[in-house]
Every structure is written in C-alpha cells, then in structure tokens.
Amino acid sequence: MQTISKKLIDTYLEYLPSGRTPNWVLGNHDNHRVADRLGAGRIDALNIYTMTLPGVGVSYNGEEIGQEDGFVSWEETQDPNAINAGEDRYLQFTRDPERTPLQWDTTKNAGFSTANKTWLPVSDKYKQTNAKSQSPANADSHYNVYKTLIQLRKKSTLQDGSVATQTVGKNVLVVTRELKNSPTYLSVLNLGDQNEVVDLSKVATNVVEKSLKVEVASVGASNKKGSTIPRGELKLGPNEAYVLSTDL
Asked: For a FRET experiment, which of 49, 99, 191, 204 has its CA 20 to 30 Å from that of 26?
C-alpha cells in the first residue's frame, strides 16, 4: 500500500498544473467508508496522510471518528441503484451503508435525530463509535487525533512547504514537509499489519536535530503526543502512525 500511496502522491503533484491546488479525498457518499475499504485500524494513519499533504484535505462525515458502514436491510433500502437491482442483488449496488447517519452519541438515533425513524437506519455500532465518547480532551481517540491535525495544518510548513515522499520496507511511508526558517514535519505511517522499524537518521537527511517531537500519534501508539524521541530507530506497531517535528 505504501508504494501505491507514494506513486499516487508523486504522480499527482508532478502533473498538477502550475498554480493549482492539490485536493486529497479518500471517502465520499458513493463508496464504502474508509474504515471498511482500507481497514478500521488505519483510520488515523489515513487521516494523517491526507491532512499533512500540501493543499486541501477533504473528509467525508464520520472519518474523523473512524465510523464504519451501517447495515441497511432490503426493506430499509433507499438507494435507487440498489432498488433497481432487486432484493437478491441489492447489496452489490447499494450506497446506503456509507450514508447511514453520523454517530454523535449513545442516545436515540445516535443523537442524529429525535424522530421515531430516520431516513436510513442508524448503525448498530453507534454505542461503540460516536463523537461524544471520543471528545474528552484526554481521550486517546480518533476524534482528538483529527482535531490535532486540523490545528497542525495552520503551520506555515504544512501550508507552504515542499513535500518529499519515501518508502521504508514494504509497509512504511514517510512524507517530509520542509520550509526555510520553519520546523520540518515528518509523517511516518505504517500502513501494514506487521511491526516495522524505521531508522529516522536515514530519512529527511536535512534534519540535524538529534531528537524529534511527537505532534500527532495514532490511537494506542507507543509514543504519545508531546513526547520526544531520539532520531534513531523508531519502532512501529501495526498501523501505527506519527507526525514528528523539529519544533522542540
């Protein structure tokens, strides 16, 4: 996956017309949610991927909390494509699962509506995955990872800096953002389901600092936001991802 990701980034930026703004989109209302297509464990890495690249990062509702598709029965189906396909084949064509209501909290209809019935049913996963349960400031949650990324995007380096991509092994993608007289940012993403080791001294070779600050850490990561790590070997668990900076 990291090789595909690097190729997509490099090719897109190479052929982007001069003066145009890149636009990064992973999910929308016509495709299964990112957590279902690419893996629920990768949601933080994928949000880091889109939010630290140059240009516009677009998020489909629910991606900030790692929301997955909901199940929609034949009787509840609303998508014309699915209805026209018939009961035996509707699951092959329906776009309703990715359109189920955003899961705000654990109340009726996941806090989306006070009506007795919503247009599409609320996913039965809403009590486990909802915005309210992830919103406390001290929560190790997808929502707080996303909020941190939104604030980080205001940094000059991420708005105007150069971009370079690098792969490490089969599963790790490193995106480096640099801008003169500003901190350098490294997005280090393990997009695989195995443990990986990255030698940080061999990536972003212009960086001279002996340590790096953890600006963003995926849920459950071994290094927490705000900590510093030596610029040596960084161990990454499956799907573990970070944004590191020289802003010590």
From this structure: 204
Query: What is the overall mean pLDDT for the chain?
Result: 96
Q: Which residues pair with 196 in a beta bridge?
A: 236
In a domain, 150, yes or no: no
Closest CA to 70 of 40, 98, 51: 98
- What span, in angstroms and rounded, lies between the C-alpha atoms of 54 and 62? 22
* Six-digit token string for 77: 């189906």
Look at the pTM and tell me if it is higher than 0.90. yes
Q: What is the mean pLDDT of residues 233-244?
A: 97
CA-to-CA distance for 189 and 167, rounded, in angstroms? 10
Per-residue tokens: 212? 């790096």
Are residues 179 and 221 located together in one domain of the fold? yes
Give the integer Cα–Cα distance in Å for 116 and 148: 36
How confident is the model over 158-206, as pLDDT tens digits?
A: 999 999 999 999 999 999 999 999 999 999 999 999 999 999 999 988 8
| Number of domains the chain contains | 2
Indicate if 202 and 124 belong to the same structural domain: no
The CATH number given to whatever domain includes residue 176 is 2.60.40.1180
Q: Is residue 230 part of a domain?
A: yes
Mean pLDDT of 89-115: 98
Name the 3-class secondary structure at 135: coil
CB neighbours of 59 closer than 8 A, spacing ≥ 6? 26, 27, 47, 50, 146
Q: Please state the rounded mean pLDDT for residues 50-61.
A: 96
Whether 8 is in a domain gets the answer: no
Flag whether 53 is in a domain: no
Q: Which residue has the tokens 């801008």?
A: 179
